[in-house]
Specification:
By secondary structure, the chain is α+β, with helices and mostly antiparallel strands. It folds into 2 domains: 39 residues; 97 residues, 2-Layer Sandwich (GMP Synthetase, Chain A, domain 3), CATH 3.30.300. 30% of the residues lie in helices and 34% in strands. It is built from 3 helices and 6 strands. A 3-stranded antiparallel sheet has the order 1-2-3, with no helix packed on it. The protein has a 3-stranded mixed sheet with strand order 4-5-6, covered by helices on one side. Strand 2 and strand 3 form a beta hairpin. Helix 1 crosses helix 2. The longest helix is centred in the middle third of the chain and has 23 residues. The radius of gyration is 18 Å and the shape is globular. It starts with 5 loop residues before the first strand and ends with a strand. InterPro entries: KH_dom-like_a/b, OsmC/Ohr_fam, OsmC/Ohr_hydroprdx_reductase, OsmC/Ohrsf. This is OsmC family protein.
């Protein structure tokens, strides 16, 4: 499967309008960085992509395993950006906090979450140097 995204710099702050399929999204930077704060920045979108992929993967697994009975599944993710002397930067660490309600025992939840992480395309595609921390909270 291949995806195509077309992006155009709008010449307003750092706004970029991107089109993928029938969807249009806007990215920008905060005012303090010279943007107009009209939309999330690319790092925020990356975290959105990660959360979305993890949640969709969880739902896909749960639909194929009705015994999971996933009643609630929430993810709170924070990313830490490291800036270097040459003014480059990269995401150095990502903390992923899963909040879920299911009938599974704690050991089964751990196995389920490990499968979610394993089969999430976005997670698998990220730089292996990123330090990940995964936390699970049972609701």
């Amino acid at each position: 499967m291949a995806y195509e995204v077309r992006s155009i710099l709008k010449q307003v702050g750092y706004q970029v309008r991107s089109q993928t399929g029938e969807y249009t999204v806007l990215a920008d930077e905060p005012v303090r960085a010279g943007g107009t704060a009209a939309a999330p920045n690319p790092v925020q979108y990356l975290l959105v992509a990660l959360n979305s992929c993890l949640a969709i993967t969880a739902e896909s697994i749960a639909k194929n395993h009705p015994e999971i009975k996933l009643e609630k599944f929430e993810i709170v993710t924070t990313g830490k950006v490291k800036r270097f002397a040459d003014k480059t930067s990269k995401i150095a660490a990502i903390n992923v906090h899963f909040n879920l309600h299911t009938v599974l025992a704690p050991k089964e939840v751990k196995t389920f979450i490990n499968s979610v992480i394993k089969y999430c395309t976005i997670h698998s595609s990220l730089d292996p140097d990123i330090q990940f921390n995964f936390e699970i909270e049972y609701l």
